């Protein structure tokens, strides 16, 4: 029982950290847990998606706080300022791609910095994260 709780907590923590400004490998943790067949697939998918979405919304919130004091140019390196252009051009729906490596964190941060509406942003991010984890689940089950 404790081992199950620790494994699911580890998946959640890995997914959360992977979606903040720190790097992580939640896909590998999910793939491993899927191959052990000790957990219902739906449970793993939900834990990973919720953890990753909460991590993204934490990054979004950091963008909100940073906007009070800094310009986006001061906060994001040039190679990550593309996120600002994408969001300005395509709007809120750009956040669907928050699961992408490297640019995903910048999209969430920029969405917060631009003060995009919280609930729609959260829902779009959630759908994007779920889609990615569902694909990983499909590949490993």
Provide an overview of this structure.
It is a single chain. The chain has 141 residues and is an all-alpha fold. The chain has one domain (2-140). Helix content is 72%, strand content 0%. The chain is built from 7 helices and no strands. It has helices spanning 2-18, 26-36, 41-67, 72-75, 82-90, 103-113, 118-140. Helix 2 (26-36) runs antiparallel to helix 3 and helix 2 crosses helix 7 (118-140). The longest helix is centred in the middle third of the chain and has 27 residues, at 41-67. The radius of gyration is 16 Å and the shape is elongated. The two termini are 23 Å apart. The mean pLDDT is 88.
Brief characterization of the structure:
It contains seven helices and no strands. By secondary structure, it is an all-alpha fold.
List the helices and strands and how they pair.
Blueprint: H1 2-18, H2 26-36, H3 41-67, H4 72-75, H5 82-90, H6 103-113, H7 118-140
The rounded distance between the terminal residues' Cα atoms is: 23 Å
Amount of helix: over 70%
Helix-strand sequence: HHHHHHH
Please count the beta strands (DSSP E, at least 2 residues each): 0
Number of domains: 1
Number of helices: 7
Radius of gyration: 16 Å
Strand content: under 5%
